[in-house]
Amino acid sequence: MLLFTLLGPETAHAMGATGASAEGGGGGSSMLIMLVAIFAIFYFLMIRPESKRRKERQSMIDSLARGDKIVTIGGLHGEVQDVHDDKIVIRIAEDLKVEVAKTAISGKRD
User: Has this prediction a pTM greater than 0.85?
Assistant: First the structure.
């Protein structure tokens, strides 16, 4: 502090030596507002769309019925033959049926 008094008040102020009266007291509330704003942006850009996609996928899986054409996450294309609680039987060739988990269904085909 002695150095700042020797250099003069203009130099001391330019170098960051300010008195206690110059410090503001509202820094904490602006930080809180910024934190809430960042969380809101993160929620609306990341969390909410993913939740919507998850609900749409779950409703698609719940609505599967015999005769629907589907694609699995492994790339198998087939037609639903039977629907159970946690698995689906699909026909991928004329005499070839495969059981897959409902979670392995990627989507419906037209």
Answer: no
